[in-house]
Specification:
binds magnesium ion, 18 helices, binds adenosine-5'-triphosphate
């Protein structure tokens, strides 16, 4: 057998720019990366800064908002809880170990849930074995398009940094991967983009067999994520039936807005994201109040929502308004799927608003071309939908007596103290202090398998 070389673990190694999560260095970087919310200065403190210092302060906050902490969504909680149980059940099984498949549409947060599972597991293992620096409990790989068995085996090898002479055959690669995985005590294998395995082609079926072979040889729990795998034939035929008999499928779906409970859940998500903002003049609860508008703009996709809010926050720092309003959100671009969904479902806006939104996307927009530091005129209407305003307590602005846990979390968040920014900036609790009911959505702590309501403690840096 050709002997592979395994580079020594190096925490400080440069993260390769090409798909870094699928290498042990990239994965370690991800595990160690905690976005730290910047502290907001008082108006006086900000005024005392030199122009360069203010520029640096704004730049820090732009960077932070571009990379906001993750939210502990129901799908992350379900994947984490299920996998945790399976890891336990699989520990003494010598074959037919059980696994998890996360299946859903694009932008529903599958990769995020899979990687957050890996992060939570790795942090838990490190906590149990603080002195064992050689452990690599989690492997994260993606299935390349039109994967062959050797391509798949090379993905595993690449994660460990194993290199082979070009004449090495697949047996060499597989043996080296299995020996290395055993040596570093891998017990969770995350395989993303599983829909790239096409069981209907010969090489796809062989690649699937290769993955199954790894699952038999490695004493680990396997978790897969892919686009709508049920309809892609993953469970068809003899091979498919075996997968169907061993894997729990967890659907990753867009949020919906059909029932009061759905609306509360969406609003909680918006409120939690809002609570992570660090803007000087943002009024807490504004985004939670715009949750119906945000639902239409995004089609309930967490990826689109995240882009919209992060984009709005970056623009708000850039133009000096330091607050996110509906007018600002109108000019943040979202993906094509979300645009189409918005066209299908959003109520019509009054002509005045439409004109302003169209103007803001054009180069000569007087609002967008204001010099940095000057303000937007105050919003004339923040309610949504403006004319056909529903009286439902779950849409638009709500009375204080009907506050949801999410809005409550938002207003008890650091943003609630943004008008007195001397208050220390700590991440918000996931639980509404004035309510016995925990918020259904919290921040990802990354340090525990517990649900967000108990895991997201104040001051816990959020995972990324
Ligand atoms: N729990 C979360 N909290 C905050 N943002 C999230 C969360 N989940 C997903 N996102 C955001 O949504 C974006 C898309 O998520 P992700 O890549 O996990 O989706 P996906 O389902 O894997 O999409 P695809 O099928 O296209 O690979 C991420 O870049 C992230 O910014
Ligand atoms: Mg993905």
């Amino acid at each position: 057998m050709n002997k592979p070389s395994l580079p020594a673990p190096d925490m400080a190694a440069e993260v390769p720019p090409d798909n870094p999560l699928t290498t042990k260095e990239g994965w370690r970087h991800f595990i160690g990366h905690e976005p730290v919310p910047p502290r907001l200065l008082t108006a006086g403190g900000r005024a005392a800064l030199s122009p360069q210092e203010r520029m640096r302060e704004d730049e820090r906050r732009r960077e932070y908002h571009a990379d906001l902490p993750m939210v502990n969504t129901p799908v992350i909680r379900k994947v984490t809880a299920t996998s945790r149980l399976l890891i336990q059940l699989n520990r003494n099984q010598i074959s037919a170990r059980r696994g998890v498949i996360l299946s859903g549409g694009s932008g529903t947060g599958k990769t995020t849930a899979l990687t957050q599972l890996g992060r939570a597991h790795e942090l838990a293992v490190r906590k149990r074995h603080p002195r064992d620096a050689n452990r690599l409990p989690v492997v994260y790989v993606t299935v390349p398009p039109a994967a062959t068995p050797k391509m798949l085996a090379m993905e595993f090898a690449r994660f460990f940094g194993l290199t082979f002479p070009s004449r090495a055959d697949i047996t060499d690669v597989v043996d080296a991967v299995c020996a290395t995985a055993a040596h570093v005590r891998v017990d969770l294998v995350l395989v993303d983009e599983i829909h790239n395995l096409t069981l209907t082609t010969r090489s796809g079926a062989e690649a699937s067999d290769q993955l199954k072979y790894f699952a038999e040889r490695l004493p680990a729990t396997f978790a897969y994520a892919g686009m709508e795998v049920e309809s892609k034939g993953l469970f068809a035929g003899t091979r498919g039936r075996q997968i169907a008999g061993r894997f729990v499928v967890i659907p990753a779906t867009p949020f919906t807005h059909a029932t009061t409970e759905d609306q509360e859940s969406w609003r909680a998500l918006v409120g939690t994201l809002e609570s992570t903002l660090r803007l000087n003049h943002h009024t807490p609860g504004t985004l939670a109040g715009l949750s119906e508008y945000l639902f239409h703009r995004t089609g309930g996709m967490i990826g689109s929502l995240s882009q919209l809010i992060r984009g709005g926050a970056v623009l708000a720092v850039e133009d000096g308004t330091e607050r996110i309003t509906e007018e600002l959100l109108d000019i943040v671009p979202v993906d094509y799927a979300a645009e189409q969904s918005n066209k299908r479902t959003a109520p019509a806006k009054p002509a005045r608003k439409r004109r302003r939104a169209a103007c803001c996307t054009s180069a000569g927009c007087p609002i967008r071309s204001r010099p940095p530091g000057t303000r937007f005129p105050p919003p004339t209407s923040a309610a949504w939908p403006p004319s056909t305003a529903s009286t439902s307590t779950t849409s638009g602005h709500r009375s204080p007596s009907a506050r949801s846990p999410a809005a409550c979390a938002a207003s008890s968040s650091p943003n609630a103290s943004q008008h007195s920014p001397d208050a220390p900036s700590t991440p918000s609790p996931a639980r509404c202090p004035s309510s016995a009911a925990p918020s259904p959505i919290g921040r990802c702590s990354g340090t525990s398998h517990r649900p967000a309501a108990t895991a997201a403690t104040p001051g816990t840096p959020a995972a990324k």
